[in-house]
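In this section we walk through a basic example: taking a raw amino acid sequence and producing a predicted 3D structure, encoded as discrete structure tokens. The instruction is simple. Fold the sequence below.
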Amino acid sequence: MRPLIVLLLAIPLAACDSKPASSPQGGVPAESVGTVDIASRGKEMPAIPFTAPQGGPATLSQFRGKPLMVNLWATWCAPCVAEMPTLDGLAKREGDRVRLIVVSQDLEGAKVVTPFFKAKGFTTLQPYLDQQNVLMQALRTETLPTTVFYDAKGKEQWRVLGAMDWNGDRAKKLIDDALNPPTAATTS
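The resulting token sequence is shown next.
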């Protein structure tokens, strides 16, 4: 099974350049702006278990009731690493409005993720783990990073394939539009 998982991860390796060009601000490179995909809008969040920061089981459905952003990433993925500080800023800025979880797809799990989090000094993010990459499979993505936004009912609104500056105007608009969808009266 491990060789199959490693083979499946070879595809995202192509999407995850190991040496991103740096941006003038030192964050997510300008050319690493993710692609917004709405093809799965309305799809129910998967009920796949992964590992919570304290080591117990977690599922996406436990977060239902509040909008949720799920970011799949890995320590070996340079665009993912570049994006993480902006995700930490987003989590801090949004507070109770949106729940944000980052789920590592590293096969080595806490062995590599714990030191990474300690070195980066994130103030808001917590390290969730998915060593078997079941979320990548359930979400049918081959790209890291992938970020999926679910509404409070657990329905997908959009996903971003690739890195994004989550503190930028484009990300703020995506989130605000998802939290404040147009009503029938404003669209007619």
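Looking at the output, two observations stand out. Confidence is low (pLDDT under 50) at residues 1-14, 17-26. Strands lie at 35-37, 50-51, 57-58, 68-73, 99-104, 127-129, 146-150, 156-161. In the next section we compare this with other chains.
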